[in-house]
Please model this.
Amino acid sequence: MPSPEPVPGTRGFIIPIGGAEDKMADRRILKRFIGLCGGRDAPVVVVPTASEAEDTGARYVDVFDRVESGPIRVVNISTRHEADQPEAIRALEGAAGIFFTGGNQLRLTTILGGTDFAQAVRKANARGVHVAGTSAGASFVSGHMIAGGREGATPKAGMVTLAPGLGLTNRVVIDQHFRERDRIGRLLTAIAYNPYAIGLGVDEDTACFIGPDNVFEVVGRGGITVVDANDCESSSMARTADGHPVELVGVKLNILIHGSRFDLGARRVLARE
Amino acid sequence: MPSPEPVPGTRGFIIPIGGAEDKMADRRILKRFIGLCGGRDAPVVVVPTASEAEDTGARYVDVFDRVESGPIRVVNISTRHEADQPEAIRALEGAAGIFFTGGNQLRLTTILGGTDFAQAVRKANARGVHVAGTSAGASFVSGHMIAGGREGATPKAGMVTLAPGLGLTNRVVIDQHFRERDRIGRLLTAIAYNPYAIGLGVDEDTACFIGPDNVFEVVGRGGITVVDANDCESSSMARTADGHPVELVGVKLNILIHGSRFDLGARRVLARE
Model:
């Protein structure tokens, strides 16, 4: 279920970040996000629900202030009841951007899934508010979310757990801390269940700025691994027992770096601008 | 990603059937489906891709003929290459209904997912063609599909495998052969990941006729168990290790039988007509 976009092309950006984004040196991902939102004039909402640490929200207030953001509102939601309160929804009013911190993506789905707050974020994105998420927050933004899994390079049946996410887009399945935690096996496994989605493996300190036209640009120090199985000839997932390796014939991989652009609709790399 | 409905309210019915539908006696599910499609005048397409048996399509030609159907076209697709051929798409032209047989739902996602045929079925449903599926075919129609899992009444982390399905609707997660195979634990587990979706546990010889207004009616001999966790206070999934029981506080269950009607948007049972 993609965001209920009232007019095609008006959706805000969707920005999964691979975790551990630079907060001290050149901070190009956070600067780019704040610039997109409108800089000093634009309120941004931070949602630290994924994290159990109490200072996660306050930490991002400092970090965003150092990249010349507008006012930062931290919305502390840690129960489903809080996610259905009018104050939570009101915090989104007038916001130009929403930022989901890292932590555990199952906290995001179990606390926010189906609540008024989740619905309000979906509607905000549909009318042009940009939504970024880092680490667990990156996994959460898509419709099919990697909830967990095992490390390793070979896809094996049962090595990944999928769950419904926020559903701002359904075109991608996102994994984060990608090369740092050796996650290509679990991303390939996720795609092997149904090749229609495109797998995005986002490295640390790297972000994927997905525009309303479903073209994304890579920003940051690492790479993004794009797994496209739509033209694959076969996937053995239907006959593979848990723990056994999966056969996947004809998967296309693209490894993209800072400045690369990719069209998720046409499934191809674009010329650099 | 629900079907790309051009005009709201024009979508065809979505009809998950719990498997083992009566094919010999009063056959009320199949009669109702054929009647909805338009009876003798209406071509219906049977897709036996889930099954590895060679005679599955032919068997349904006989079964539908006995309930006074229109012409039945069997589309045999067993590879991704076949699912991208123009003949497969042409078979859908003029069809009033599409029927996915039982078998293995991962054959449906791995062979059809992301292909031209899957896209054509989605578009057909959006413009008014009715799509039914029995057993594996029932699981396949929704966006979040139960690919497999373990039996038992207690929800346990890791007891269900979710995968992306065809995505005609995202409001429900469907399980089939429901009471016959003791699947309430795995359906509760699926909903515990993200309470926004409504769980539908469909018994054998029982069907859920979901209309374009997202109101469904139960038809058949068994029941449909509706799991609604949207008002639940908490789900422990974010802190539960695989194999351990999941705490879910405040889930609402409705057990519905032949003639019951339920509004998936308002999440409530309606008066009988």
